[in-house]
From TrEMBL:
This is Phosphatidic acid phosphatase type 2/haloperoxidase domain-containing protein. Belongs to the PA-phosphatase related phosphoesterase family. One of its GO terms (cellular component) is plasma membrane. It is a multi-pass membrane protein. Gene3D superfamilies: Phosphatidic acid phosphatase type 2/haloperoxidase. The keyword Oxidoreductase does not apply. Its main location: membrane. It is found in: Membrane. The chain crosses the membrane at residues 12-33, 64-85, 97-117, 187-204, 216-236, 248-269.
């Protein structure tokens, strides 16, 4: 068992290193890839003329919905799963931790992957946000570009932003504004929301099947929770269009990105927990071996007893024949 435990701990350490690298890359994408691609614009582009609004779902709320809730579901379902299956072996607590671990690591991997993919898309595409003109106020040589009618119908690539984002006090200026304005595609809110909620939906479905096998009927509670998860993801995605933070196509792309990764990770977790070869089996290996050894010993003793009885019967028969003779 010590050999299996050592291999498991080494694999655990290696997995955490991979996830840590992905998280660092996803959080520092702009440092590795640089600023988003600088794209031009047309002065008459109405899709870039929307007003700047504050976020309906800010970054902190997004982290709670896309990361905190799935994490809570993994922990709670892991605890309830062992309670429902009534596993009272010595390794119950260890089994619970390993069940949570086998779900948590793939989730963290998927979360980091979604962040990295969407940030690479933002930096590579560099699509302008719908509030571009409201925030940027593009000028060329200190002259507002779109005030000149001759610039209409011309693709403008040489410009500078002189506007700001937010109120006068504490406003965000210069390169930060330009990086934010050129990161519309894909929608990070939609990607993370659909990833977290789709993973939660499929994880709850797996947990529901476990409850049914243990004769625990929860009725429509589980479908209701799954519906709420879908509704939350949909609300987050649509709020990005209503707040003029993204074009509708950005939201669609982000939603499909998060949904695809969420389904893939949930499918992997289900197959990984359902399959064999995990440390969960190693916990029970000594007991199985001892049981088999005991059964083998009992069988051997029964065989010896049977052979001894047969020999005694043969000896008694020979003795009787000699007496008759």
């Amino acid at each position: 068992m010590c050999k299996f435990a050592l291999k498991y701990l080494l694999r655990l350490l290696f997995d955490f290193v991979i996830i840590a690298v992905l998280l660092v890359l996803s959080l520092k994408t702009y440092l590795f890839l640089g600023a988003p691609t600088r794209r031009g614009f047309f002065c008459g582009d109405e899709s870039l003329m929307y007003p700047f609004h504050e976020d309906t779902i800010n970054s902190h709320m997004l982290q709670i919905l896309s990361f905190g809730i799935p994490l809570l579901v993994i922990v709670v379902c892991g605890l309830l799963e062992n309670l429902a299956l009534q596993k009272r072996s010595v390794g119950t607590h260890l089994r619970t931790l390993l069940t949570i671990h086998d779900s948590l690591l793939p989730f963290l991997f998927g979360y980091a992957a979604v962040r990295l993919i969407k940030d690479v898309g933002k930096v590579t595409v560099g699509r302008l946000r719908p509030y571009f003109f409201e925030v940027c106020h593009p000028v060329h040589e200190d002259v507002p570009i779109c005030d000149d009618d001759r610039n209409y119908g011309i693709y403008i690539e040489e410009y500078e932003c002189v506007g700001s984002m937010g109120d006068t006090e504490g406003a965000v200026h210069t390169s930060i504004v330009e990086n934010i304005m050129r990161s519309s595609f894909p929608s990070g809110h939609a990607a993370l929301a659909f990833f977290g909620m789709s993973f939660t939906v499929f994880y709850l479905q797996r947990f529901s099947s476990i409850l049914r096998r243990s004769c625990a009927n929860v009725g429509l509670v589980m479908p209701l929770l799954q519906f709420v998860c879908i509704l939350v993801a949909w609300f987050v995605a649509t709020s990005r269009v209503l707040d003029y933070k993204h074009h509708w196509s950005d939201v669609v792309a982000g939603g499909f990105l998060g949904l695809g990764v969420g389904i893939a990770v949930a499918y992997y977790v289900h197959g990984h927990l359902k399959g064999s070869g995990t440390f969960l089996e190693v916990v029970d290996t000594p007991k199985v071996s001892i049981t088999r050894h005991n059964n083998r010993g009992i069988s051997e003793r029964s065989s010896v007893y049977a052979s001894t009885s047969s020999s005694n019967a043969q000896n008694n028969s020979v003795t009787k024949q000699i007496s008759k003779a």
